[in-house]
Amino acid sequence: MLAIETTNLTKDYSVGFWRKRPKRVLDGLSIHVEKGEVFGLLGPNGAGKSTTLKILMRLIFPTAGAARILGKELDDVSAHERIGFLPENPYFYDNLSAAEFLNYAGALFNLPRAERRRRADRLLEQVGLSNASNIQLRKFSKGMVQRLGIAQALINDPELIFLDEPMSGLDPLGRREVRDLILGLKETGKTVFFSTHILADAEMLCDRVAILNLGRMQGCGELKEMLGMGIHSTEIVLESPRQELVDQLKSYGGYSVRTGERVRVEIPHEGDVAAVLGKVLQTGAKIVSVNPVKMSLEDYFLAKVARGNRKSAGKELVAEAKGGR
Amino acid sequence: MNRVITIALHTFKEAVRDKVLYNLIVFAFLMIACSILFSSISVGIQQIIVIDLGLSSISVFGVLMAIFIGIGLVSKEIERRTIFHILAKPVRRLEFIVGKYLGLVLTLVINTAIMTVGFYLALFYQTRHLGAEDLGPLATIYFILLQLAIVVALAIFFSCISTPILSAVFTFCVYVIGHFLSEMRWLGTTLHSGVMKWVTAALYYLLPNLSDFDFITRTAHGEKISGTLLVSNSLYALLYVTVLISASILIFEEREFK
Amino acid sequence: MSAAGLSSARRVSPKHICWGLLVLCLAALFPLQSQIDRDIGIYARISDVLYVPPGTNLKLLCLGNEGLVADVYWTRVVQYFGREHMEGARGEFRLLAPLLRITTELDPQLLIAYRFGAIFLMTKQPVGAGDPQAALQLLRRGIVANPNYWRLWQDLGFVYYWELHDYKMAAKIFAMGSRQPGADYWMKALAGTVAAKGGDLQTSRLLWSEIYRHAENDAIRNTAEYHLAALTAKEQIDQLNGLLEIYKRKAGHEAHSFRELNALGLMSGVPVDPSGVPYVIGADGCIALGKRSPINLRLLQ
């Protein structure tokens, strides 16, 4: 059984005051998430990430398409017994304390009182808020609220956790803590589905990602594969090479950068690396490092997004030309 | 059912910690104390004034509480998106609405009970004697509570369809109109348009007839409320609240939270 | 609603329940409200006006909206007492005086309230409250607040004239009224007539016709019509009694039917009263109104 499965999920909004036109914010999203993996939903702002999450949380309703969570239909409330959700920029109740809030969250799962208290204490410690358990939420900092949000998402020990921009607004320490938390969840076999526009986090955490832009999926798959497809050059760092050597190496088509005594040379084609190394060794130059340069997620992302934008920009131009507005 | 109770108790807890509530209660007690003051300057009708003003305070402040806290608690959840984490849990939308309503009613019952104690303290101070014949106002206070139950349901209903400020305005308007429905209906009969006659008659039955529950002045003069009226009004309040809450649930089920 | 694969049975059910409850409860509200109306009684809704103590500064409580509140109270006056058929108002006139008092305290310039009140307070039951003193009180306050409005003088004089039969007082008041700006020309003459002749039919008819002509609403107009009909009937009865006398003298015995009068050529056909119901000759030999006649001669006492 898949943890999450969406088929052609589509969402239109009506915009415009007099003549309502549909605006498509999500277009035919079909993804699946295996149990036990960390799945990232990436995309720039306005891509449809939050929309997807809200549809899955039945906060909004899809215009077309279907989805299943842990094998159950979207409108089956019982599916929510085993999931947790951290909304984006969460805000909770000013007048309650952290402990009271977690108690409320636990009570909504019909957990018995003693169990609620036990879990609340444990979770507060896990997210580092034990000292703040009796402080009213109005006094919490943004980071503390975020951490409490994760705690409430875990109160029912869910199999599947949804996080909407979990790192937003956190300082580097906070982000590190959340990252560790997510990795910890993965280790216990839970499935994590989170949306983010911070690629570095995704790169570090996700097994698989889907990239959204302007409501459409631009790419989906295992991170390794997507980025592996892009190993495209090798970078060699030399120390104090002779200039003739450097000029020779340039002929292979890459760049060279001199920083003090060190020169970084790029060799675009993998096949040439052996030959280059041979030449270098012949001249007796000192090799500091040899690194295959993988395409970063950012490069991949920007390429996809740019292409997507060009496509849709083109569509808009066509529509305008046809006389629509 | 458990979840409904959980939400109700949480709503109650939230309401009780709301500053607005305390301000209103303080004002209510002030008014009740003032009634003693007024009564000392109106010879011969001291007790009447205490009962009249005291009950009116309970009614007026109850309505203010019902409107502001009622709207605050539902609209706030939607505006501040705390409702996101609730709906992510296995909570049905109707459970949310019913739970909120019951929590608010509980808040109003407790507040009214507190103010009733204050009222009887004032009465005791005034008359130096409380007997069985002083239980009359309790039935009137019960009617005030029934009114408040309807007003809170109105507040929730409007919160589901519009912004907090508009909800407060609409609820207040319906509250005022609800006291003048017989005048409005009569006005319709004097107009020559058949359509208007029908419209005003329909509105008479559709809008909440809050003047059914107004017994303060008569109670102050010792009139008793008949048993059949107690039953009829209770039933009316129950039916009307059911209508409003059902409508709220139907609207809330379709609502999207962006 | 949600295209995401509805498990229809589970999803639709609570909605159906809600719709069902909504419709059922709305429908039940209709008979229930009628029942409550009966329980409370239409007049009990406003009977708390009995308890608004006099002299309270109501205006304070209105927070500047006295005019509006006065209008509300005036609306209630007309609503509960201004009906075309007066039966509904029977027995509840005790609320009329307080309602009018409050209305005119809040808005002393609401002239219609004084006029309406005067007529319905002074007129005998069941058409009115039968309380001429209350009418006098109301009108006096009206004149204090609106001393130059001559019609209030007319009404005040009328109460003395019609109900209290104090013709001297009435004449004095009519004279005062005739001096107010805008007074109709006949007020002076009226003063003289009343002083001289007291309560004769002509004068009464003139006064009621005035009220009829200037009636501000249907209730007043109907009452005036009612009184005028009684006056006309009285006149006609007097005339017919005269004919009976003539017949008695000519025929030597009392007439028992109009045919006998027809036979003697004293009149033709059967006379009808202003409402169209035929007169009858009573057992005592005098003309009386038909049983079905709505005209009430007691108003003339």
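qc> Chain B has a mean pLDDT of 86.
qc> done
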